Amino acid sequence: MNKREVIEKIKEQILEANNSNDFSKINSDLTKKRLNWLENNLGDVDEPSIVKKAYFLLIKKMEIDLSEVPIIFEDEKKITYRSYNWCPVLEACKELGLDTREICKKGWENSVNEFVKKIHPKLTFSRKYNTLRPHGKFCEETIELIE
To answer: What's the CATH number where 28 sits?
Structure first.
């Protein structure tokens, strides 16, 4: 699928979910796809830090160039990065006139949380929603080991 087709597909999903106020299908489908991918690729990243391993696996799954998601903070329990990459959800929301802060939270955050928890059950994923694109220049995201 080319970028336009991806945007159109996501627009359809968002409209259906938004009209029914039920984002469970988006969450369920994405979670299933991401966990299936992870099952086949978990061993592809050999990294002693579990948070960095989760970061690298997520970036690999999303097929994003590392230069588009620079790390701005990292220690043994937390990694925060900024996403500048092309995002079909962002593009779909802009075209539909919908707020990414609401749509991304309802439809796309849970599947990423399930993805990182599959890597380690005490990992969590979060976004800084007040500056999420297009309200800011990047999406700031964090993977953290909660003990």
So the answer is: 3.30.1380
